[in-house]
Amino acid sequence: MPSKPAPMKKSPAKKAVENAPEPAPEPRPAPPAEAPPAEAPAEEATSAVPAEETPTTGEAAPAAAPIAEDSPALPDADAPIEAAPAEAALIEEPQKAPTPPPPAVPSSAPLNVSVDDVNDSSLTIKWKTPETVGSSGLSGYTVEYRKDGNWIVANEELTLADRYCIRNLTAGNLLNVRVVAVNPGGRSEPGVLPEPVPIGDIGDKPKVRLPRSLRSRYVKKVGEQINLVVPFIGKPKPAVSWLKDGQPVDTKRVNIRNSDRDSILFIRSAQREDSGIYEMTVKVESFEDKAALAIQTVDLPGPPSSVKLVDAWGFNAALEWTPPKDNGNSDITGYTVQKADKKTGEWFTVLEHYHRLTATVSDLIMGNSYLFRVFSENQVGRSESSAVTKKVATIQKTGIVYKPPEYQEHDFSEAPKFTTPLIDRAATVGYTTKLLCSVRGCPKPKIEWLKNQMIIGNDPKFRQISNQGICSLEIRKPCSFDGGVYTCRAKNAQGEAVVSCKLEVKQVILPEADKEKGK
Prior knowledge:
Strand content: 35-45%
CATH topology of the largest domain: Immunoglobulin-like
Mean pLDDT: 81
CATH superfamily of the largest domain: Immunoglobulins
Number of domains: 5
CATH class of the largest domain: Mainly Beta
Structural class: mainly beta
Low-confidence stretches: 1-89
Helix content: under 10%
CATH architecture of the largest domain: Sandwich
Radius of gyration: 59 Å
Number of helices: 4
Largest sheet: 6 strands, antiparallel
C-alpha cells in the first residue's frame, strides 16, 4: 500500500486545502484485513524525514498521486472549500472478537466400582462411565491403590477401558482401590471400592440362579401364601441378604431361611404392602452377585368413583362413570352394568366385561322407572360393592294407538290334487295289506274308494281312513278274489281327482313234502 507523503512547509492556502475533508470515495470492495496495520510504518517513515528536505513547490504532486487514484481531484487552492457529503462520515465498525469457549470442568466420579476377579498376584476391577463427562469428553481413567500409606498409580498411561487388572501383588495383602476420571478440566472425584480387597484365590464366585418363573412379575392374591426358593452357588459359604425397595426386609412379616445352596423367602399371608421389588445379594469376600424379583399382591378392586344418568329417551338410557380409586393393585379389566325396575327391585345384568366408561342401555319397558349400578373388574374378580345412579330413568308412555294391519282376503279354494299317488302292490292270501295316498284341496275333498270301478261303500272287509289329507284303504285278510284295480277318488266344489293302482293277491304254494306233513 503506498505510504503517506512526508510533512512539508506549505502556504496558508495549501494548508487550508489539505485540512478540508476529502470528498466521498466511490463504492469499492472493503479493504483486506491487513490494510489498517500497514499505516503505522508509513507514519514512522513520515516522521523520519526532516521538514527542511521536503520540497515546497509542485514537486509534491507526484508523491500524492497514489492516494488520489480512486478519488476526485483536490479543489484549487483559491476555490471555496465545500462541505463533504454525509456519506464520508460512515466508517466500518471493527469486527468483534470471538467469544472464548467456557472453561473445561472435571467430570463426575466413575460409578459402581467393583471387583471383577482376584487371585494370588492380581486384582481386576471394573466400573461404569460417570454420569457427566464434560463437553470435551474423557481423556481416560487412572487406577490407584494403597495398602497402608499413600496412593499408588497402577497405570502409567490413562486407560479408556472400563476394566483394569492390577498385577504383581502380594498374596494376603488388603488393598483399597479407587478410580479417577480425567478430562481437559482435570481429575474427577474418585470412585472408591466400598471395602478393602484381600489378595488371594477364591474358591467359587457367588452366583444367584434365579428360577425362570421368578424372572417375570410374581403375582399372588391377598391372603395367599408366598414361598419362593432361590438357589445360588459360591465357596466358601456366601453371606445372603435381602432388600425390599432398597431397604432391609421386615423380618416380622417376611421370613428368610438360608442354606448352603438356596435362600427361601416366606410370607404366610400376603398383604397389599408386601408388593415391591425384592433384591437378593450373595457375597463371598469382595465378590457379590445380585438378583431382583418383583412381587405383586392383588385384591378385588373398589367400585367406580361415581356413576350418573346422562340422558333417557325412548326406550334407552345413557350412563357415564369414572374408574375406581382403588384398582386392587391390578389393572381394571372391565365393568359390569346392571339395571333394576323400581317396582320389583331385582337386579339384572345388561353388560358384562365392558371396557368403556360410557354405555347405553336399551330395550327398557315403557312406563317403568329404572335404577342402574356399575361394578369394577380386575384379574381377581368383581368388586364387592357398586356405584348406583342417584337419578331414576323413567320411560315415558307415549300416545301410541295400535292399528291392526289390514290383510286382503285370499281365496284358498283349490281343486283336489293327489300329492302322493297309489303304487301297484302284491299281497299274500290271508295277510292284511294297506293302500296309501295323499291329497290336498280346499274345501276338504270327499274321499271315495272303488274296486274295478265299483264303489266299495261300507263293506266290512275294507277299512277306509282319511286324516289330514292322508288316505288309506286297509284290506283285511285278502283272498285271491280281492285282487284287481283299486281307485281313490277325491271330490269338492272345485273339481275332482282320481288315482289308481293294481293289487295282486298271490296264493302260497307249499311243496309236496310239506303237504304230507300237514296231513
